[in-house]
Design goal:
There is one protein chain. The protein has 383 residues and is α/β, with parallel strands linked by helices. It has a single domain, classed as Alkaline Phosphatase, subunit A (3-Layer(aba) Sandwich), CATH 3.40.720. The protein is 32% helix and 14% strand. The protein is built from ten helices and twelve strands. Strands 1, 5, 6, 7, 8, 9, 10, 11 and 12 form a nine-stranded mixed beta sheet that branches. A three-stranded antiparallel beta sheet has the order 2-4-3, with helices on one face. It is globular. It starts with 13 loop residues before the first strand and ends in a 12-residue tail after the last helix.
């Protein structure tokens, strides 16, 4: 069960997860701009000059990551270098599955954040302990008996919003409400369906009120999907509904072709969105209690393919927030042929170490029941 602080005295915070779907190109995100091997392997895709923002005398950010460079300079962003897992898989589905379940060697239908939700709210009293912005339910959030709200836009969120006429919709909602009334254990064919249906009804009622409680001077661009998702998260936070886990996805980063254009656009959108969100958190007084975790299922191959890059392994991830101890963490993977893993970079930081840190120092729950073993945490988050 969660307490106000964990065993190390860290105050519980809210976790915002931004999934970079499709496999973000690590080498063109955090660029080894002084390494000749980088340009040897990437004669077409190597970034230089005005296309990079130097961090130090070895590494640089992509020039379309201005917001992230500013956060880094303010010691509010930790860059996780060489992050990955044992025996990497280049399949989008399998690799994302591994990140979602924290199970590198077996398959599972239970997500690591679904487990975290069950520890945060063991009696299932709050149907919106976790809110996902996007279609479907990411496997990271899935667990039997755990209710999660998946939202497109809060202003139109609810059940049967497409029905014409308020009376028709009210009649349908009344029917659904009676269907999902609590019954004896033997009186409903599926306890899971009962819990999901009841949670959907209760969650819709709670979340519908969030935009009404929200006031902000920040203008999120309407044509930027990830910006609109982060605006929705800010709205939920402003309503103080007890939501602890917020999830959104951005992409696709599957840049096999036209990468220089597409990768730049994706990071432009994300930089704008994160800047708006960070500004909004400050206005809402939520900066100190919010931590953003940003990851992708894998990086790309070290060598370019002429117009883009193909599926690889290893990658970069980011932890952002006022309470985050900023800086570079881990080791930047070596590009020498002898150090490569079949044309890929080798990981040196197990992603489950980050999960252990986020679980214990952000969400305030024990990590071992979620990850099935104890992983050493990183000193990332201030009390």
């Amino acid at each position: 069960m969660a307490n106000n602080t964990n065993g190390n005295g860290h105050k519980q915070k809210n976790l915002v997860v931004i999934q970079l779907s499709g496999g973000n190109d690590y080498l063109n995100t955090l660029v080894p701009y002084q390494d000749g091997l980088y340009y040897d392997f990437r004669p077409n895709m190597g970034l230089k000059g005005d296309d990079v923002i130097p961090v130090d005398d070895k590494l640089a950010f992509n020039s379309h990551m201005g917001t992230f460079k500013n956060l880094f300079d303010q010691d509010k962003m930790a860059v996780m270098m060489g992050i990955g897992y044992p025996e990497p898989n280049r399949s989008h589905f399998r690799s994302m599955d591994i990140w979602h379940t924290a199970e590198p060697f077996t398959t599972s239908a239970v997500g690591w954040l679904g487990k975290a939700n069950s520890l945060l709210d063991p009696e299932g009293k709050n149907p919106i302990t976790t809110v996902n912005f996007g279609r479907g339910l990411p496997r990271a959030l899935a667990m039997q008996g755990v209710s999660v709200a998946s939202v497109g836009a809060l202003e139109t969120y609810g059940l049967y919003t497409g029905l014409s006429g308020a009376r028709n919709r009210d009649a349908m909602l009344d029917t659904v409400d009676r269907i999902y009334q609590p019954v004896a254990d033997g009186g409903f064919p599926s306890r899971r369906i009962l819990e999901t249906g009841r949670g959907a009804l209760d969650g819709a009622d709670l979340l519908r009120e969030a935009p009404e409680a929200y006031t902000s001077d920040v203008e999120y661009p309407e044509d930027n999907p990830i910006a609109q998702s982060l605006k929705g998260i800010a709205q939920v936070m402003s309503a103080d509904l007890g939501t602890r886990i917020h999830y959104a996805a951005h992409g696709s980063f599957d840049t096999h072709t036209a990468e220089l254009v597409n990768h730049a656009l994706l990071w432009d959108q994300l930089s704008t969105a994160v800047q708006c969100f960070v500004d909004d958190l400050k206005q809402l007084g939520k900066s100190e209690e919010t931590v953003i975790w940003m990851f992708s299922e894998f990086g790309r191959r070290i060598a370019d393919n002429g117009a883009g890059t193909d599926h690889g392994s290893g990658g970069a991830a980011f932890v952002i927030g006022d309470s985050v101890k900023g800086g570079l963490y881990g080791e930047y993977p070596k590009l020498d042929l002898a150090d490569q893993l079949e044309g890929d970079v080798r990981f040196n930081t197990d992603f489950r170490q980050i999960y252990a840190t986020l679980l214990e120092d952000v969400l305030g729950v024990e990590s071992e029941p979620v990850l099935k073993k104890k992983f050493d945490k990183l000193d990332l988050v201030r009390n």
